[in-house]
Amino acid sequence: MHKNSMRKVKKEEISKIISTQLMRSAFREVIEETLYKKYAFHRHPAFIIFISFILSGGIGTGISYYVKSIEKKEFLKQQAFEHLNSFNKDLMARRIEAGYLRMAFMRHVPIEEIKIKKSNYDKAVKQWRENYLSHQFSFRKYFRSKYSTYIEKSMEKHLIKNLLLEIDKEITTYYDEYIKNYPNPIPFEEEKMKLLGKLLNTSNRCGVGFANQIFDLIYRDIKFDSSYEWNFMKEDFKNTTLKTECKIP
User: Fold this and answer.
1) pLDDT of the residue at 2
2) Which of 40, 167, 214, 245 is 20 to 30 Å apart from 173, CA to CA?
3) Where are the domains of the chain?
4) Distance CA 22, CA 16 (A)
5) C-alpha closest to that of 206 among 237, 173, 174, 170
6) Residue 165: phi, psi to the nearest 5?
7) Number of C-alpha atoms within 13 angstroms, CB side, residue 93?
8) Residue 76 and residue 142 in contact, taking contact as beta carbons nearer than 8 Å
9) DSSP of 49-68, one letter per residue?
């Protein structure tokens, strides 16, 4: 009788262990499928707590860590997209205000209007400069780059140095001359205004080109290191549209 009772207990314990393992295995399959499909509820804190509570030991801890790592990745991805959108807005505002000022120069408007448009342009440039590093730091975090990325270095050379700074120089030179000679109109320099127009159009195409490449890298969600990103952008400047879009007029 005693032996039969022992056998019964052992069978019950074994059955319980098997059931627990099967339950854990089933939960693991559900979690893996959920994380793969990226359902929205997996990012909810309550979900993480529930899974950690159900799955004891290393399994629960491991899955909780995995969910949190995906949550962090999704946050950085969303943050990068938001900064990319802001980057585009800041660049467009700078270009639009420069275009308004250029048209004012060409129409020889009163000095009061020139000063207002110059002030608006200066505000747009200031906003761009204030936000630029914040945008780049967000991209660095997403690209997992401790230092400047190749995208950032290329942007500083092809967009900022070759185009935006040249636009600033042309506008400042023409504005100073305009103010100095007022009320006498300065001779309209058609070639300078044409060059300024070409620089503005090129800066817009170049900025959009960079934004498209950054968007593509973020959207594809590829695991890559800085060397991958370096080679990607390097080849892009050799073989695709950015080389043309950022070419100095």
Assistant:
1) 47
2) 245
3) 2-69, 75-245
4) 10
5) 237
6) -70, -35
7) 18
8) yes
9) HHHHHHS-HHHHHHHHHHHH
Helices (H), the chain: 2-37, 45-54, 57-107, 111-143, 150-155, 165-181, 190-220, 226-239, 242-245
**Which residues are CB-contacts of 83 (< 8 A; sequence separation ≥ 6)?**
134, 135, 138, 139
Contacts 24+ apart (CB under 8 A), 207-210: 207/88, 207/91, 207/95, 207/159, 208/88, 208/245, 209/241, 209/242, 209/245, 209/246, 210/151, 210/154, 210/155, 210/159, 210/242
Q: Phi, psi (5° rounding) for residue 9?
A: -65, -45
pLDDT digits 0-9 by tens, 170-179: 999 999 988 8
pLDDT greater at residue 7 or residue 127: 127
In angstroms, the CA 173 to CA 95 distance is: 17
| Locus of tokens 């195409």 | 205
